[in-house]
Amino acid sequence: MPALKVLDHVSKVLDDVSRLLSSEAAQTSAIVDAGEAASTSEVIGSGDRATTATKELTTSDMFVSLPERSEKAVTLDNLEKALDAEWRKEKLQYPSQCELEAFEALRRRLDNGGILPEPHVNDALRSLDERIELRLDCQSARQLQEMSVRVQIETRLVSWVPGMCPGEADACFLWFVSLPVKDGDTWWIRCRNAVMFDFVALESARDEKDEARKHVDADFRRMSNLRLFYHEMLHGQLQINYMRNPEVAWGCKTLDLKGADFEHACIPDYELAFFNRLVSVSHSPSWRQRRITIAHLNSTDGGFESSFLVPDSANAIAYRPPFAQRNIDAATLTRIEGGFVLSGTLSNQNKDGTIHVYYTSIGAEQ
């Protein structure tokens, strides 16, 4: 679900902070994840696609050098004030008690659910409790001397802001990155990440009178929401992993955020593998899955139809979540005697498509 947004008011924030701090200032840029990429996945809560912006973060000439008399504490205090100003501009607020409780419930389930996701998101989760610090070696292009960049990272849950996440995503992860500030032979950068969820949409249930069907729907939604939580944490963890990569060369005045995977090159497959593991160990009810490949050569102008059998089909309930589809533009499931028919169209008529269908039976082991 994500997108990249570079805030366009660099000069204004710098001027404001400079006036407050007597020219000892830093400035920020924001990187926004739209939740899930339109071409690969959607949020189960809304069913609507998110869009992805593709702007480059350019900070090469936008930095502030502190006076020689400045100390580390002053340097970091200035960065914090600049981030505070950025958050006020974006109208980010502390989460409500209900949002906090829903978020912590998801976190506990990820920590204690017995399913260890791969890759892990331990550092991203730790940044919710404490500020973590990374040291990056860099070389000043002008001075041709070895220097270092200290990157401090923290993540906070914030209250849901309608319209902030691109598209109609039900969650998004935001990177707020201060511009570097030099103190001696060290450049300091502070990242204050924010993550938000539309828990009202995620927890909303369809109008279903059948209690057994309600139970099945709730169980599938529970697993999907945990998958979404993992998805958002990956946008933090993958960037941390990237910064720890010794093969990545770093400049002293820029923070390369390619690792956060805003283009969703890796995250959709990671979250799908995690979701499939959740399904495999769920016993209330017991779930099964089927991976269906749509051969583009067998399609008609991209249109396809494929049937499959399921046990106890008369009582079966099947789901085809958008995050479990690849190269599928639209798809529907129709019940038939003995199973289901999957029909739809391929996004790219020259490539095969895949879709995972998850099904269970009302009356399965509870």
What is the overall pLDDT average?
A: 78
Helical percentage: 25-40%
Relative strand content = 25-35%
* Regions with little confidence, pLDDT below 50 for 5+ residues: 1-30, 34-70
Based on DSSP secondary structure assignment, what is the total number of beta strands?
Answer: 14
Backbone CA Rg: 23 Å
Given helix and strand content, the structural type is alpha+beta
Q: Give the helix tally.
A: 7
Largest sheet: 7 strands, mixed
- Measured between the Cα atoms of the first and last residue, the distance is 32 Å
Order of helix and strand elements from N to C terminus: HEEHHHEEEEEHHHEEEEEEE
**Count of discrete domains:** 2
How would you sum up the global shape? elongated
